[in-house]
Design a protein that fits this description.
The complex is a heterodimer of chains A (233) and B (1104). Chain A has 233 residues and is of the alpha/beta class. In chain A, 29% of the residues lie in helices and 28% in strands. In chain A, the strands form two sheets. A six-stranded mixed β-sheet of chain A has the order 6-7-8-3-9-10, with helices on both faces. A four-stranded antiparallel β-sheet of chain A has the order 2-1-4-5, covered by helices on one side. Chain A has six helices and ten strands. The longest helix of chain A has 18 residues. With 1104 residues, chain B is an alpha+beta fold. Chain B has a six-stranded mixed barrel with strand order 3-4-9-6-8-7. Classes of the chains: A alpha/beta (233), B alpha+beta (1104).
Chain lengths: 233, 1104
């Protein structure tokens, strides 16, 4: 049984008279502890899949099973609980609370999570022990993203979902962040799913899912993922 | 020129897309404009309503009175004043109405009267003599159509018959008058308690006064400007001068006239007195003459009596003599008659004896003769020859004839004797018989002679009798004459005496009468002389009559009404500004937010090549449309709703018709301009700021606001104690300072308004229980009739009082109505209160300054006055102020203390101080009673019992007064409700708006935490924790601000005669807080739903 699986997932958006089918029969599976990346062009439906997996959106049809539970049937409250306890999300634009310090931003997540790790420790783990009391505005993009990751990790989620985490970062910083994600995946056994445009990242992942035009076109399993350090693009 | 159709499409779509924002601006502007325009318009509407009322009923502009009345010549003078339109003279007088104790101002009415027209509420105007129309106000309700009403005045020196043709009238109608727009007050009166209760209207012909008591005037040029304006006042003051000028000579003329008349009257009177004196002297003289005559008469009578007596005595003497003679004669006569009678009797006896003898003898003689004869015959015979029978016969005869004969006969018979003897015997016997016969004859002759004598004597006697009779007749006549003479004389004398007696009686009567009347006449003369002397003095002291030219301000309620309207206007200036301020701030925030949201679009438009002006268009159109539409709606509602509500609140105090609402261009323009400025200007400013950046900058996300340390973090012992969420909240609070400030303001404003609303309710509602529970400790006030010391009524009254065991205290009081005057302040009615026993006062009235606990006692060195009076005239302990009585005489009073009081003005003083000031002892005219029975039926019965006493004019119960007061004040509740509702609306709009903005500005943040797994409630609380704190801060600030706002409203809304209790009940703070929290909670609830439905994904996607 796959840790994460979507069976015949459909998602449609009605905008007045037009209907946009974001997910048109998605089928995928991801094993526990895998580092999976989802690639595809803009508007393919990648974010929709991630959003559904992250409990922020519900599939109109189909099954979404995470660790044995079909979250497609969850109501709003159950989804919130799911998000709270089992999911860590990292956004392209960090979405840190500007009014809180680094530590507080992480605490924001750890305070509501039952399995939370110590915020300071997590930050230390991501290398931000010097930045505990700075506000996001005082951090660089990479640092901010690391805070976001720390925030996500502090919850010890089952899934760590990242939507184009390096989209706003330069090459080196981006690589750093990816390394962090990879290390986390390896060391903690957290299932990490990353959405990216960059198909060059394929070697670092255990699984590559190609989504195009609202459908999963190709799934590739990589038996020997390499460290991201060794990839150049 | 391109149509820029797409641009306009965008503009209009924006409106429909953000309905909530549009509506919130709309709402707040509408509230602000409506409130401002509405309340601002109320004052002028009130004045306008009054103005039309006055115009329709042709209320007088000026009223002219003089202390000696006005005559037709004065009326003519007034008619000639320049610009005068109508001149209406009339009569008025104050009376008591029957037993009701009500004082009525009676006004004259003529159907031709054009000015001061009446509005009938029932029945018709007076037509025939005896008709009366009573005031339609509440105090006249005891008079129904058809009732009889009698004018009375218990003052003995007043004769109402001099004023009115008759004193009983029938009620034919009830009416309102523009002269008395106040529903209660009818002005002062010269009788009774000093204030009139109602007015009454009777036909002019029922007044008997020789002069007019007042003249009403209107002017041609005052029809146009509304009263209560400066223009009107100016015109009136000019007319006043003109009228005063026209009547300038009047006082002197009248004085001269009155003096001349007075002098004439005095002369007449003096003449009359002289006349009377002369008449008195004449009468006296007549009496004296009569006395003399009487004396003479008496003398004559006495003389007459004497004369009569004398003459009668003489006559009588004569008569007596005559009588005596006659008596003698009579006696003689009597004797003679007796003699005669005797003689006759003797004669008769003799005769009868003789006759008897004769009779006896005759047969005897005859027999004897016969016998003798027989014997003689026989003598010659032998006795034996004689037959026995004969013999026997002869014998017996002879025996019986004569014994000697018998013997002889017997002897003869016997033969003893011879015939000769017998013859002898017979002869002897015969001789005897003859002798006897002779004797008899002699006797007879004697008798006859006696008889002849007797006859003679009888004749003589008869003669004497005749004479006597004559004499008697004479005597009788004489006696009769004497008697007649006496009778006559006596009669005459009796008459004379009677006449004399009559004359004396008459004289005595006359004298008595004279004395009596003289005494009276003397008294009257003395009185008359005294009056003449007084009159002379009065005449000497005659002062110039005063002419009073008064304008409408003398009408009760007239000035007060405009003051109230002004008060509203001043509230209208302050209050809505408050609203507008908030409206401005709210729209500023809203438009700023809108601009923020549109940042990208602005950039895009700029990049596309649209000018700044084009970009502006959207925001300006949006805001202008919102504010103009809102203003229109606000004006429509405000101009109609607020004046009606507030006017109704005042409605109980005045008897004016329904309010006329008007559209006021000035207020409209002002409020629209302000509204548009608030919204459009802020929009303009906000956009302008953005437009300074260029397109590219605009299209990039705005640099996020830096988080920063807040000062609270520097206080470690607080900061470390705050939980995580606490820190978040604290930071959030200080991050959005502008919005924080706005929220606090909004909530504070709401709380302040609610507090003011409840506070007003408290202040106004407290008046009755404080005034009539805390301060006035007595339960009833008895007002006495104006009496001149009728002790009979007093005894009866005291008896009635004694019969009520529940009464625990009695205080006799002198109460007088006066006016306190000072330049720059409206004249205030004050009640002078002089308790007979000052030391007993505190069981009846608590005199105590409001802020302190110690009660004041009345002392002789000054008066204790009530707080509002002190406030109005700026008085402290030791200050002096002036009061005037109904004759406008001024008196200076020193303030010795200031006491808490809420309704009307009182000046308390001791009797001694009263005497010091007014130079007369205070007369007790009312009484306060305390009792501990709280039963309205019992009170009614007590009232009936006491008013039945002739000493009592009326009884009023504190319970009744306080109830009536409460009812009046209940109308203020409307104002309170208006405030609370406005506050609620304000709060809701502000809070909703701000929270909305808050949410939309922090949508990413909120979405993030939603993503992080915050439950909906937690998400709401994340925002709302801040709001809670701000709300609480706002409530505290609002309660504080509310205290000031409340004070301000009280100050401006307070009528002169009342003080509102400045205390706000503690529970009102609670209500204000609770309500604000409630509104806050409602906003939060609606926010919650909104937050629930945030599309996390959309929010997190947008670039910012």
């Amino acid at each position: 049984m796959a840790f994460v699986s979507i069976k015949d997932g459909y998602k449609r958006y009605r905008m007045g008279e037009t209907t946009i089918v974001a997910n048109d029969g998605i089928n995928l599976e991801i094993e526990k502890g895998e580092f999976a990346i989802i690639v595809g062009p803009s508007g393919a439906g990648k974010s929709t899949v991630l959003n559904i997996l992250g409990g922020m959106d519900t599939a109109d049809e189909g099954q979404v099973v995470v660790d044995g539970t079909d979250i497609a049937k969850f109501n709003s409250k159950e989804l919130t609980g799911y998000r709270r306890n089992d999911v860590g999300f990292v956004f392209q634009f960090y979405n840190l609370v500007p009014n809180l310090t680094t530590k507080e931003n992480v605490e924001l997540a750890s305070q509501i999570s039952p399995r939370a790790l110590d915020a300071e420790q997590v930050l230390r783990d991501v290398g931000l022990e010097q930045r505990l009391n700075n506000f996001p505005a005082q951090l660089s993009g990479g640092e901010q993203q690391r805070v976001a990751i720390a925030r996500a990790l502090a919850k010890q989620p089952k899934l760590l979902l990242c939507d184009e985490p390096t989209g706003a970062l330069d090459y080196h910083t981006g690589k750093q962040v990816l390394k962090l994600l990879q290390d986390t995946c390896r060391h903690t056994g957290t299932t990490v799913i990353v959405i990216t445009h960059n198909s060059a990242l394929a070697p670092m992942a255990d699984r590559i899912i190609e989504i195009n035009n609202a459908k999963v076109r190709k799934t590739v399993v990589n038996p020997n993922p390499v460290s991201v350090d060794s990839i150049e693009w | 020129m391109m149509m820029k159709k797409a641009l306009w499409t965008d503009i209009f779509r924006e409106i429909s897309r953000t309905k909530a924002r549009f509506l919130s601006i709309f709402a707040i502007i509408m509230l602000g404009v409506g409130f401002f325009a509405g309340i601002k318009a109320t004052g002028p509407d009130m004045l306008d309503t009054a103005d039309h009322y006055y115009m329709d009923l042709k209320l007088m502009d000026l009223k002219v009175q003089s202390s000696l009345g006005l005559e037709p010549s004065d009326i003519e003078k007034l008619k000639r004043v320049a610009g005068v339109d109508a001149v209406q003279p009339g009569y008025s007088a104050d009376v008591f109405l029957g037993d009701s104790g009500r004082i009525a101002k009676v006004l004259s009415y003529d159907p031709g009267n054009n000015l001061n027209q009446y509005v009938l509420t029932e029945g018709r105007m007076p037509e025939a003599a005896g008709d009366i129309v009573i005031d339609a106000g509440e105090r006249g309700n005891e008079f129904k159509l058809g009732d009889q009403v009698t004018f009375t005045n218990p003052d003995q020196e007043v004769d109402l018959g001099e004023t009115f043709d008759h004193l009983t009238y029938t009620v034919v109608g009830r009416a309102k008058s523009p002269l008395f727009i106040s529903s209660m007050s009818r002005g002062t009166s010269g009788i009774g308690k000093g204030t009139a209760d109602v007015f009454a209207v009777i036909p002019e012909k029922d007044f008997k006064l020789p002069v007019y008591t007042e003249v009403y005037l209107t002017f041609q040029d005052t029809a146009e400007p509304a009263p209560y304006t400066a223009e009107y006042d100016e015109k009136i003051s000019r007319h006043k001068e003109a009228v005063e000028l026209a009547l300038q000579a009047m006082p002197q003329e009248r004085l001269a006239e009155i003096r001349a008349e007075g002098q004439k009257k005095l002369n007449e009177a003096t003449d009359k007195i002289e006349d009377a004196k002369r008449q008195l002297a004449d009468a006296e003289q007549e009496l004296t003459d009569a006395r003399l005559k009487l004396n003479e008469g008496e003398q004559a009578y006495r003389d007459g009596v004497n004369k009569l007596q004398t003459e009668l005595a003489q006559g009588q003497a004569k008569l007596n003599a005559a009588e005596k003679e006659l008596s003698q004669g009579r006696a003689e006569l009597k004797r003679n008659r007796q003699k005669l009678e005797q003689g006759r009797n003797q004669l008769k006896t003799g005769q009868s004896q003789l006759d008897q003898q004769k009779a006896e003898f005759a047969p005897k003689l005859a027999q004897g003769q016969q016998l003798a004869k027989a014997l003689q015959q026989i003598s010659g015979l032998d006795p034996e020859v004689i037959p026995d029978e004969q013999r026997q016969e002869l014998l017996s005869a002879a025996q019986s004839a004569d014994p000697k004969l018998g013997a002889a006969a017997a002897g003869f018979m016997d033969g003893a004797l011879d015939g000769a003897a017998l013859r002898q015997a017979a002869s002897a016997f015969q001789r005897g018989l003859d002798e006897a016969s002779l004797q008899l004859d002699q006797a007879q002759q004697k008798l006859d002679a006696s008889e002849a004598e007797l006859k003679d004597g009888q004749t003589k006697l008869r003669e004497a009798e005749r004479q006597l009779a004559q004499g008697e007749a004479s005597l009788k006549q004489g006696a009769e004459e004497l008697a007649a003479a006496r009778r006559e004389g006596e009669a005459k004398l009796t008459n004379a005496k009677a006449e004399l007696a009559q004359g004396q009686a008459d004289y005595r009567e006359g004298q008595e009468k004279f004395q009596e009347e003289k005494a009276r006449a003397m008294r009257e003369i003395a009185d008359g002389e005294k009056e003449v002397a007084e009159g002379r003095k009065e005449l000497d002291q005659l002062e110039l009559p005063k002419v009073y030219v008064m304008d409408r301000s003398v009408n009760p309620g007239y000035t007060e009404y405009s003051d109230n309207a002004d008060r509203l206007s001043s509230i209208a200036t302050a209050f809505p500004v408050f609203f507008f301020l908030i409206a401005a701030l709210v729209s500023l925030t809203t438009m700023t937010r809108m601009v923020e949201e549109q940042r990208l679009q602005i950039g895009t438009l700029k990049a596309l090549g649209y000018s700044n002006r084009d970009v502006m268009k959207k925001f300006l159109v949006y805001s202008t449309l919102a504010s103009v539409a809102a203003s229109a709606a606000g004006l429509a509602v405000g101009f109609t709703l607020f004046p009606a509500i507030i006017y109704d609140a005042y409605g109980a105090l005045y008897n004016l018709p329904d309010v006329r609402t008007s559209f006021y261009l000035s207020y409209s323009v002002v409020s629209v301009v302000v509204a548009v400025l608030c919204t459009t200007m802020t929009a303009y400013v906000a956009v302008r700021v953005e437009l300074r950046s260029n397109a590219s900058v605009l299209m990039r996300p705005r640099a996020p606001k830096n988080g920063s340390r807040i000062w609270l973090e520097r206080v470690p012992w607080v900061w470390n104690r705050l939980g995580f969420i606490g820190k978040v909240t604290a930071r959030n609070l200080f991050r959005y300072k502008q919005r924080m400030f706005m929220t606090v303001c909004g909530v504070a404003g709401c709380t302040a308004l609610i507090l003011t609303g409840f506070g007003l309710k408290d202040s106004i509602g407290d008046i009755a229980p404080m005034q009539y529970g805390k301060i006035m400790q007595h339960q009833a006030t008895v007002v006495f009739q104006e009496d001149n010391g009728e002790s009979g009524g007093l005894e009866d009254y005291n008896k009635r009082l004694a019969g009520v065991p529940e009464i625990t205290g009695i205080l006799n009081v002198t109460q007088e109505a006066m006016t306190a005057a000072a330049p720059g302040v409206n004249g205030q009615d004050v009640n002078l209160f002089v308790p007979q026993s000052p030391e007993k006062t505190d069981s009846f009235i608590v005199l105590k300054p409001r802020e302190q606990g110690q009660t004041l006692s009345l002392t002789d060195d000054g008066a204790i006055i009530t707080e509002k009076l002190a406030k109005l005239f700026d008085l402290g302990i030791g200050s002096t102020f002036t009061v005037q009585n109904s004759d406008n005489e001024p008196f200076e009073i020193r303030v010795a203390g200031i006491t808490e009081n809420y309704a009307l003005h009182y000046v308390y003083m001791t009797p001694k101080y009263y005497e010091d000031i007014f130079d007369a002892a205070p007369e007790v005219n009312s009484q306060l009673l305390t009792y501990d029975r709280n039963d309205p039926e019992w009170e009614d019965r007590l009232g009936e019992s006491l008013t039945a006493s002739e000493r009592v004019a009326m009884v009023s119960f504190t319970s009744g007064v306080s109830d009536a007061f409460s009812d009046t004040m209940d109308s203020m509740n409307v104002v309170v409700v208006v405030l609370i509702v406005s506050a609620a609306a304000l709060a809701f709009v502000v809070l909703y708006n701000l929270t909305n903005i808050n949410v939309s500005e922090r949508i990413r943040e909120l979405s993030t935490i939603k993503v992080l797994g915050f439950y909906d409630k937690e998400v709401t609380m994340y925002i709302y924790r801040e709001n809670m704190i701000l709300t609480v801060l706002g409530i505290i600030a609002g309660n504080l601000a509310g205290i000031f706002l409340h004070r301000f409203v009280l100050l401006t809304a307070e009528v002169d005669a009342m003080m509102f209790s400045p205390t706000i009940h503690e529970i009102s703070y609670g209500y204000a807080a609770l309500l604000s929290l409630l509104f806050s909670a409602i906003v939060m609830a609606s926010m919650h739903y909104k937050l629930k439905r945030i599309d996390m994904i959309e929010a997190l996607k947008s670039v910012e």
